Amino acid sequence: xxxxxxxxxxxxxxxxxxxxxxxxxxxxxxxxxxxxxxxxxxxxxxxxxxxxxxxxxxxxxxxxxxxxxxxxxxxxxxxxxxxxxxxxxxxxxxxxxxxxxxxxxxxxxxxxxxxxxxxxxxxxxxxxxxxxxxxxxxxxxxxxxxxxxxxxxxxxxxxxxxxxxxxxxxxxxxxxxxxxxxxxxxxxxxxxxxxxxxxxxxxxxxxxxxxxxxxxxxxxxxxxxxxxxxxxxxxxxxxxxxxxxxxxxxxxxxxxxxxxxxxxxxxxxxxxxxxxxxxxxxxxxxxxxxxxxxxxxxxxxxxxxxxxxxxxxxxxxxxxxxxxxxxxxxxxxxxxxxxxxxxxxxxxxxxxxxxxxxxxxxxxxxxxxxxxxxxxxxxxxxxxxxxxxxxxxxxxxxxxxxxxxxxxxxxxxxxxxxxxxxxxxxxxxxxxxxxxxxxxxxxxxxxxxxxxxxxxxxxxxxxxxxxxxxxxxxxxxxxxxxxxxxxxxxxxxxxxxxxxxxxxxxxxxxxxxxxxxxxx
Length: 520
What we know:
Number of helices: 18
Number of strands: 4
Number of domains: 2
Helix content: 55-70%
Shape: globular
Strand content: under 5%
Order of helices and strands: HHEEHHHHHHHHHEHHHEHHHH
Strand order of the largest sheet: 1-2
Radius of gyration: 24 Å
Largest sheet: 2 strands, antiparallel
């Protein structure tokens, strides 16, 4: 029962904040309720560690011939790190809110806690039915939140298209289930048919924006550090966890080398854009894309622990960077622990990333090493940049304490997970590429201020500043989508207008004529 208790510890305070905001808008202790809920949920996640593995199963749905599996949630050595990272992120969001926002508005904290509760359900989902249901809940909540945060019709269209890409990922999981049933088996993470692995990998890649390369959600809106960070990172973690459930042998295919190259190319492009982004929030979509691409590469090399390492680093290191909204020199330097988490050096969070059961395609190695190097160098640049952030030292003492504590919890969790708690702890890994990446990163960080082409620019997907082949590709696809929409409007107006009855009679006559010819 620990899993539902933890979920309720996150969700119930969120609901209480919403109800109090409606009934008692002048209530003075919103932040304390959010802090209490986040702290209790976070502590309960650490209690899981003493009881792993945990299983919680709901009653089986009827009819049994249609629903083969009951919704089931499992916490083990691969899902628990995702859960603890999401819980730590939620608590950090509440703690660091003292430096970012008015403490009389509880809605951002309620949104972060609610997303965390649903996210914990997603990362512990034990079968495709359960995961698809939680994905749908996350996608609908993100759709509604995004539509409320934009003002132009064009932005609304992009949000709907992004939602459609996520629904397509859900469709691929369902299609893998159909193929399994037709083959005489039932799709389950514990006993998965060999031909279903690639469908699940592509489904995760589509939801993450890696296969094919695209932004899986609209460009940054008004949602920025708090609930915006929770939404982005929780959604990514809920998709990455699927890769840890794919049996290692099921991704072996003649298509695997091509997938390696596509994933590595996406990693290079995303990490390059992340490196040159003007600030960490502008580059946040590409942070998610670059880490997701590296996780997909680990999945292709049959390393579930590597996927977990990249996914947890995405949440914890990214959370520390994006929530650090106040300037303080020692805190900025401490955030570099996140760069250590990305290094794949022995006994770090990602040590097992390149130590899988299948070899990495040799043509992908240079691209993956370059992508990892640029991702770490970009992280170091954004962590140390002076920028225009407010000085933390000018704020009251309680603000300094809670903000530092929130960032410190994320960084401390990164260090702890390198040694205990899950299947990828205390790993030496493949230290040769890790050492090469370390040396290249040091060189790139040194060269970045001295080479003009490495200077930050605006990420062109966020605000176009120049044309490239990716721009032309996605502009063409967007134009095709709009053309199909206009054609659909023309057909709809023709059929629903005054001549609709005549068109219907004409189609009916043609259909009868065709059937009479076939019947002869």
